[in-house]
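Problem 12. The chain below contains 252 residues. Write out its predicted structure in token notation.
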Amino acid sequence: MSSKPTLVLVPGAWHTPEAWNKVTSLLEAKDYKCIPVILPSTLSNPSTTFFDDIEAVRDAILSETRQGRNVVVVVHSYGGAVGCSAVKGTSSSSETSGRVIGIASMASGFGPSGVSFIDGLGGSPPPSWKVDEESGFAVLVAEPRELFYHDLPVEEGEYWVGKLTKQASRPLMHKEGGEHAYAGWMDIPAWYLATSQDKAFPFEAQKYLVQVAKDAGGDITVREVESSHSPMLSKPEETAKFIEEAVAAFVG
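Solution.
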């Protein structure tokens, strides 16, 4: 069994765990155990809640910590809100012999406890997506390839557009999610990969939110990559290296 911590990888909204494949193949070749999580909100069920997404990640974490393995939670975009909330109580639990030792985040934010995802966005969706009230799904308004994958070759970008799923709007929009939102980044160290060419979550906004989190007391180390919103696809080697460096820092 590898002595390295297990990596639990959380995708963003609309995305499947397949988005992590390039990075996990690189990391598995270096003896990391990788567990990409499927978010229930991406499974075409509009009644899915933010709590359902949290529980999916938490189940993956506990499956490892209960076996004595330490875990690093790797998150992207909306997955950051989910992953940070899922680590609540897992960094120093008496119920498990393993624990979560860090968060590796990219193109994401650092939400405070008790604040829903939509309230963290200022109370309304950004211009890139809207809610279809009739279907209960969040619908992309911006052209997805340009929004998420503009630095990939056109054909590959279109491939990933074809992999996007229906995203339930309830986890993104409902204020009920606030009761489950937790600032796990206040409990454990976090590394952050800022994406300088991001058209979905602008670089300046990322830097601002990182500073807010630091000012709140978060232990956050920042690295940058010249990438779109999806560095795990356009810059997999750099992303894998970032995760490895973060793990080394967490392990000490």
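Discussion. The CA atoms of residues 39 and 56 lie 7 Å apart. Students who got a different answer should revisit the alignment rule from Section 12.3.
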